[in-house]
Amino acid sequence: MLNLVVPITTQNWGIGEVLNAVSVSNFKEEIIVRFLCAKNNPKFSEISNLKTKNIPASLDVFPANATEDEMVYSFLKNTENLAFVLVRSTCNFFCAEKLDALIAADADIALFNSQKQNKIKTFVKEKAIKLCKNFFNINFF
């Protein structure tokens, strides 16, 4: 099974988009959607009342004002040897085709396209990816 971990913070896309993309994905039988949300998030009530269209989904609730990183680290700390795809809030577009490509790539770490970054951040990110490949043999998609 593959867990699609979606921390709910400041996304430009909606929760319905995630469920629609998973419902038409080629790997929908293998995917479990895990929403991570803080209690005070405005989307909390939307998620808790959401119909999941026969997609296995769960909601992990965190204390008020929990950051995205805190939610993700807590989730990872409580799971062992779990295959997952993490959908960060910087993902600028979520669709079934991109999800299928990430899953089919069989990469160690795969990322959705993120929002535009400045040139310095892009340079540092590219160097970090090269260092990870050379020293740790981690392949990015």
Q: Which percent range fits the helix content?
A: 25-40%
Computed Rg = 16 Å
Share in β-strands: 15-25%
- Broad shape: globular
The separation of the N and C termini measures 20 Å
Sketch the major β-sheet.
Answer: 4 strands, parallel
Structural descriptors:
alpha/beta, four-stranded parallel beta sheet, 17% strand
Structural notes for this entry:
The chain contains five helices and four strands. With 141 residues, it is an alpha/beta fold. A four-stranded parallel β-sheet has the order 3-2-1-4, with helices on both faces.
In short:
The chain is an alpha/beta fold. The chain has helices at 15-23, 44-48, 68-77, 96-104, 119-136; strands at 2-8, 31-38, 57-62, 84-86. It has a four-stranded parallel β-sheet, with helices on both faces.
